[in-house]
Specification:
Elements (H helix, E strand, L loop, with lengths): L1 H14 L9 E6 L4 E6 L9 E9 L6 E8 L6 E7 L2 E4 L4 E2 L9 E9 L3 E6 L2 E6 L10 E4 L12 E10 L5 H7 L13 E5 L8 E2 L8 E4 L7 E3 L40
Antiparallel strand pairs: 1-12, 1-16, 2-11, 2-15, 3-8, 3-12, 4-5, 4-11, 5-6, 6-7, 8-9, 9-10, 12-13, 14-15
């Protein structure tokens, strides 16, 4: 009986993984006039500690500037933004994080980190990809906007999908970024440094709930119920180990305190 139970469990894991997860959706942006507008001054001020992170799926990176998030001061010519020029990351006014290659038609996780008046960092898929050796500079204020530049020039729309937007008022370490990038935050209320959190798990409507507080957003443009789509973002990209079935193995030092859990894909039929 135990053997049959094991086989059944493995079959479920191999062939029905969606059954093991709750609904996870993303918002689709058409790159023309779709955006989500939220409240004002949610992103921390320039020269302070904060981390902005999300998952994104860009459909076309050849159409000039596109913004994932922005908070543009309407009375100024600059502001906070996180987006692209082609496949190059742009993080706030004046810093183009060169040396990063972002591909279209695939999901990526991005975390942009401001370290007070000293440094800034960009992590892509949990890996540090760019460092700025000085503080970020921009004029604070304006509405937080997802999928577009904001209220200044009214363009630079993003075309693709966005999921799991998180705004923190602290410097997230690489370990914290990696530990949480593949899972939803289970208890946002307990995260003292979390400012706003958009799981983007609705399936209809024009409101984007804030799972941390009251900074809810409103969908604009021609966004409809069809723009809420199932998201596989947090299920990849991840790496695996391949075993040849002959002499491949991984040895771990003897430790009877360890607990193990893992996914498998077998090349043999059970």
């Amino acid at each position: 009986m135990k053997q049959n139970l094991f086989v059944t469990t493995v079959l479920l894991i191999l062939f029905f993984p969606p059954l093991l997860f709750a609904q996870n959706n993303a918002l689709t942006f058409d790159g023309t006039d779709d955006y989500v507008q939220i409240g004002t001054s949610i992103v921390p001020a320039a020269g302070t500690n904060y981390t902005i992170e999300c998952w994104f799926y860009a459909e076309d990176l050849s159409s000039g500037n596109q913004e994932l998030l922005s908070e543009w001061n309407t009375s100024s010519t600059d502001g906070f933004f996180l987006g692209f020029n082609g496949s190059t990351i742009r993080f706030t006014n004046g810093w183009t994080a060169t040396g990063i290659t972002v591909t279209s038609d695939s999901w990526h996780h991005i975390a942009a980190v401001s370290v007070g008046t000293t440094n800034a960092y960009v992590y892509v898929d949990g890996v540090l990809r760019a460092t700025k050796g000085s503080a970020l500079s921009y004029t604070d204020g304006g509405n937080l906007v997802i999928g577009q530049q904001g209220n200044y020039s009214g363009d630079e729309y993003f075309g693709g999908k966005i999921d799991e937007v998180r705004i923190w008022d602290d410097v997230r370490s690489v370990d914290e970024i990696r530990q949480n990038m593949y899972q939803e935050l289970t208890n946002p209320a307990s995260e003292t440094n979390l400012i706003a959190y958009y799981k983007i798990n609705s399936s209809s409507g024009t409101s984007l709930p804030d799972s941390k507080g009251s900074n809810n957003g409103t969908l604009n443009g021609d966004m409809t119920d069809s723009d809420w789509q199932t998201s596989p973002a947090m299920f990849g990209p991840k790496n695996t180990m391949g075993f040849d079935g002959t002499d491949d193995c991984i040895r771990v030092a003897d430790d009877n305190t360890l607990d193990f859990g893992f996914w498998i894909r077998t090349e043999l039929y059970l």
